[in-house]
Write a structure and sequence with these properties.
Layout (H helix, E strand, L loop, with lengths): L1 H6 L4 H6 L2 H12 L8 H10 L3
């Protein structure tokens, strides 16, 4: 809701008329494609770079 009302500035009736697929497409258009979750190797790399 925060994304639809705040970021997209949709009216309430327009927000509630969206399908989940349409909302997901709008989110991808603004934020870009979803990123892969951090894997074990990625975590180990971050821990090596930032040991604190």
């Amino acid at each position: 809701m925060a994304f639809g009302f705040g970021r997209l500035r949709l009216a309430a009736r327009d927000f509630w008329a969206l399908t989940p697929r349409e909302l997901a497409a709008a989110m991808r258009a603004v934020a870009g494609p979803a990123r892969r979750p951090l894997d074990r190797a990625g975590l180990a790399g971050l821990m090596a770079r930032f040991p604190d």
